[in-house]
Every structure is written in structure tokens, then in C-alpha cells.
């Protein structure tokens, strides 16, 4: 593993009590060649799901789950965003094992939302626009391995249809300089991550990894999609993880 990558992996496990500005400077010193993924302003899906009664959920993987969770916790209409694992078995759904990259799991976030307030298509627009870079294969920023792949784990045929059509739409219009590599896979099961991974971006804003990689994503949501941004995040803490 290159020195810059191993440096960031160690940074990701740190919880230093330093100012955010200092955290960014420290991360930059470790990783001069890396930067938070820029936002890409995208059109909404041409096809979306019809509004229905009751809450819906979709599981999204886009690199480290801390940042993806943070983005959707600041999204109006989202009622819960839980960090966890998808794509592998229950027996291997723990952080240390998933981090080996051999389990089939991806770090993922289960996003539960109210379709009367935000559509499934808008969730996907946010996912592709500000939550991650969908053109990076089996990596995201400084994190490498299949556990950091880009994937949409769909719950039903309608979710699959809209997701596949949106990827085709974005590729056809060359919204990104490279082809989208996001997988569209059926959701077999979702396993919540350990409690210490929940609400991580909110609880540890001064962690260098969060300050350098994830807080800019939340700021991009606020800047690019102010109509769906909410300042107060909806947190997992204090509620039952299912």
C-alpha cells in the first residue's frame, strides 16, 4: 500500500482533539495528492417512481459510510440513515472483517425517506451528485478495495428500473468525464454497523478524515441542492437500530 494510502487509513481511525482547520492541514500533509470529491451538478432522473404512502428505503454504497450517512442525515425528507454492510453474509458483517475486502460486503447506508417529501429519484440525484464519485471502481477517494465500491442495492423492480435508467441517462449525456461504474444489485440483507460508526461525521467533525473528505460533501449538498438541505441532521443516536 502506498505511504499516502496507509497514512489516511491510520488517520481514519484517529479521533484527535484538534481544530477543524488543523485537521484539514494535517490530512493534506499526509495526502498531498488527494482531495474531497467535487460536487457535480446533475439533472434529476427523467423517470422516477410514483409517490406512495408510507416510508421507503434504499441501501446505497459509495465509499466510507461516514460521509454517505452524513450527507443523507442532512437531507430533508430522510427520516433515518444508518451505516452498515450489504453484499455479504451475516457472519462477516463486522468492520474489521469487512475491511479485509474479502467478504463481498460494501460499506453502505440504509436511507429511509418519506416519498411525500422527497422522491427516490432525488435520493439518487444526491447520491451521484454530492455523496460520492460514481466513476471510481472499487475505491472512493483515498480508500481502496471492493468494500468501497459504488452500488445501489435495490429493494424492488421499480427501484432497479429507475436506478438503471438514471445511470444510462447520465452516461448518455456524459455528465461525468468517465463512465459510471455503479453496480445495481438486489438487496439480500442489510446489517447495521457497530454503534461507534453511527453519526460519525456529526460526532467527530475534527477528525482529519471527516474534515478533509466528508464535511465538504455536506457543504456541497447545501450549496448545490439548498432546496433539500437541512442544517440539523437526523441522527441514529437515541433511536433503535433495526
Our estimate of the beta-strand percent is 15-25%
Shape by Cα distribution: globular
What class, by secondary structure content?
A: alpha+beta
> What is the distance, rounded to the nearest whole angstrom, between the alpha carbons of the first and last residues?
36 Å
Order of the strands making up the biggest sheet: 7-6-1-3-2-8
Please name the CATH architecture of the domain at 41-202: 2-Layer Sandwich
Tell me the major beta sheet. Answer: 6 strands, mixed
How much is the radius of gyration in Å? 17 Å
Describe the structure.
The chain has a six-stranded mixed beta sheet. The protein is α+β, with helices and mostly antiparallel strands. The protein contains eight helices and eight strands. The chain has a domain at 41-202: 2-Layer Sandwich (Peptide Methionine Sulfoxide Reductase, Chain A). Residues 1-34 have low confidence and may be disordered. Helix 2 crosses helix 8 (208-224) and helix 3 runs parallel beside helix 8.
Amino acid at each position: 500500500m502506498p505511504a499516502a494510502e496507509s497514512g489516511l487509513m491510520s488517520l481514519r481511525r484517529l479521533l484527535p482533539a484538534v481544530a477543524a482547520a488543523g485537521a484539514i492541514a494535517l490530512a493534506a500533509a499526509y495526502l498531498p495528492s488527494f482531495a474531497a470529491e467535487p460536487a457535480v451538478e446533475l439533472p434529476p432522473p427523467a423517470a422516477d417512481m410514483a409517490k406512495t404512502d408510507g416510508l421507503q428505503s434504499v441501501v446505497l454504497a459509495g465509499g466510507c459510510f461516514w460521509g454517505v450517512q452524513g450527507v443523507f442525515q442532512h437531507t430533508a425528507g430522510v427520516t433515518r440513515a444508518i451505516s452498515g454492510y450489504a453484499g455479504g453474509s451475516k457472519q462477516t458483517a463486522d468492520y474489521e472483517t469487512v475491511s479485509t475486502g474479502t467478504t463481498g460486503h460494501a460499506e453502505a447506508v440504509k436511507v429511509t425517506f418519506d416519498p411525500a417529501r422527497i422522491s427516490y429519484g432525488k435520493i439518487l440525484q444526491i447520491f451521484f451528485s454530492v455523496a460520492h464519485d460514481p466513476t471510481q471502481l472499487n475505491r472512493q477517494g483515498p480508500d481502496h478495495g471492493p468494500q468501497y465500491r459504488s452500488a445501489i442495492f435495490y429493494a424492488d423492480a421499480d427501484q432497479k428500473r429507475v436506478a438503471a435508467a438514471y445511470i444510462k441517462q447520465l452516461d448518455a449525456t456524459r455528465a461525468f468525464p468517465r463512465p459510471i461504474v455503479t453496480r445495481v444489485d438486489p438487496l439480500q440483507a442489510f446489517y447495521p454497523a457497530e454503534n461507534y460508526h453511527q453519526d460519525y461525521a456529526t460526532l467527530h467533525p475534527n477528525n482529519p478524515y471527516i474534515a478533509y473528505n466528508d464535511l465538504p460533501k455536506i457543504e456541497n449538498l447545501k450549496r448545490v441542492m439548498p432546496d433539500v438541505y437541512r442544517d440539523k441532521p437526523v441522527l441514529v443516536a437515541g433511536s433503535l437500530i433495526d
